[in-house]
Amino acid sequence: MSTIDISVVICVYTEDRWEDILAAVSSVRAQSRPALETLLVVDHNQALLDRLSKEYKETRQVRVLANAGPRGLSAGRNTGIAASRGEVIAFLDDDAVAERDWLHHFAEAYTDPRVMAVGGRTFPIWASGRRPAWFPEEFDWVVGCTYKGLPPGRVQVRNVLGGNASFRRSAFDVAGGFATGIGRDGDKRPLGCEETELCIRLTRAQPDAILLIDDRAVIHHRVPEVREHFAYFRTRTYAEGLSKALVARSVGADKGLESERRYTTRVLPAGVARGLRDALLARPGGAGRAAAIVAGVVTAAGGYVLGSVRARRGGATFSVVEIAEGPGREGAAA
Q: Where are the alpha helices (DSSP H) in 194-267?
């Protein structure tokens, strides 16, 4: 077994997810390969901070911290990184649970010193109990899950997906932390791409870095009822376009849209064809899935165009911060 120590960071922001947060922590504590520690980073919510601090005050391997930066997921993750003691930092969404061997599969990959990041596979848990008939698997990223079109097995990728991911600590020394001003901010517009931007920045700073997805490292992610509707689908795809424009502005369109070109020219046309075939065979949802794919492309493209205009005018910016050593690192092994 690898001797690499892994810290797990879970960023939280609302008491509405109280039971989900407890379940996420429990899944980490039940790992076949124990985590060194679990850090709960609370995003500017004093009531939740106090409640979690009381809940875990007797649990030495769970620490509750306040986000030390601006509101948002990126700053919360940076707070967790700074305070953590592990050689590897894994990130788990606050409304997800990890399978028992999640950390075991992450640790395996880090026996290769060139590996700087490892992601896993995320399955949706639909609030209604089943996938909406119209919802295409090619767009599961809309609800924070692994989408149809990603290669199976353990494969090298441009970027990992943030809700089920891990990074070697030295990656943040090389590239800095997650960019603020991009990505999620509580209940505001559901932006993303902060992990994409970080991964591209990392491989530019360290060209021999290897980034992997291992689909044996599995988590299960809750999809609330509101996200099962087309209105959210449209909002999220539009926000993705805005986010991609920021990333492309920062790292260049060639790298920023490298994976997206294959996705839009190969994966999505195949999805439309499957949907139309199912419609012809009178299978439920076929026409809806084909239409949703087309609509998703159109709204994402619209967001990208508007985001590009805003970025050129300086109306949309983000910043990268160095990770300062937090108080939790005191006494940590060098």
A: 194-205, 230-251, 253-256, 258-262
Which structure tokens are listed for 96?
């997800």
Question: Residue-wise over 300-334: b if at least 16 C-beta within 10 A, else e?
Answer: beebbeebbebbeeeebebebbebeebebeeebee
Length of the chain: 334
Q: Is 318 helix (H, G, I), strand (E, B) or coil?
A: coil
* DSSP 8-state assignment for residue 330: T
Radius of gyration of the chain (CA): 19
Question: Does the pTM of the predicted model rise above 0.85?
Answer: yes
Tell me the CA distances in angstroms from 233 to 42, 131, 263, one per residue in order. 27, 13, 18
Q: Tokens standing for 16?
A: 């509405």
- Candidates 79, 99, 90; CA nearest to 117 is 90
Residue given tokens 């505001």 in the structure block: 188
Q: Which residues pair with 121 in a beta bridge?
A: 218
Helix (H) or strand (E) holding 293, with range, is: helix 286-312
- Residue 212 to residues 24, 198, 201, 258, 274, Cα–Cα distance (Å): 23, 14, 16, 16, 29
| C-alpha dihedral, 214 to 201 to 72 to 97, nearest 10° | 10
Q: Which two tokens stand for residue 60?
A: 């030495």
Digit-coded pLDDT (tens) for 228-280: 999 999 999 999 998 888 787 766 656 556 678 888 999 999 999 999 999 99
**Where does residue 294 rank: exposed (0-12), middle (13-18), buried (19+ CB within 10 A)?**
middle
pLDDT in tens, 94-104: 999 999 999 99
